């Protein structure tokens, strides 16, 4: 039972890291002037269009 719980915890951690990273990475790149604001907006707009499940 302990092994099963550790896999669930690992999956929750990876899901959370992915969610935070998908928001944080474009913001960090914009802060470093590596991408423009329009690129961030297009990325977030496209992600919201694909959210139909």
TrEMBL record:
Domain of life of the source: Eukaryota
Membrane topology summary: Multi-pass membrane protein
Main location, first listed in the record: membrane
Compartments, as annotated in UniProt: Membrane
Keywords: Membrane, Transmembrane, Transmembrane helix
Gene Ontology CC, one term: membrane
GO biological process, one term: late endosome to vacuole transport via multivesicular body sorting pathway
InterPro entries in alphabetical order: Vps55/LEPROT
Family: Belongs to the OB-RGRP/VPS55 family.
Protein name: Uncharacterized protein
Organism annotation: Linum tenue
